[in-house]
Amino acid sequence: MAKILMVDDDRDFLEACRLVLEPQGYQVALAASVREAAAAVKKGKPDLIFLDVMMDLPDDGIALAYQLVKEGLKTPIIMLSGVSQVTGLQYGKCDEVLPCRDFLEKPVKPEELLAKVKKILG
Fold first, then answer.
1. What is the pTM of this model?
2. For residue 107, is the peptide bond before it cis, meaning its omega torsion is within 30 degrees of 0?
3. What is the CATH number of the domain that holds 30?
């Protein structure tokens, strides 16, 4: 059973994701802060991480992604962002500058979430 870590400061969003993923057979861990996420990565060894770009600070998610990769993490990271809904700004693709596999724009439809998971985990 694949383990997925969902990281977002919106607990309702986290629970909604759990409700979508667990019935599909995924083991889901939730973290609502950078500290919780770092501990969950070390403890749970997830197969996939969804990481919100903005939490307490505007770049918390990006900073955490860099930290995890610097520590040797090979787990794919999908960045979550609702910034274009608020500002009209859009993030580019993940590449050598951003340590992630893909971006997913919030709000996330259940079918989009499942499609990303299946694309990355097979």
1. 0.88
2. yes
3. 3.40.50.2300
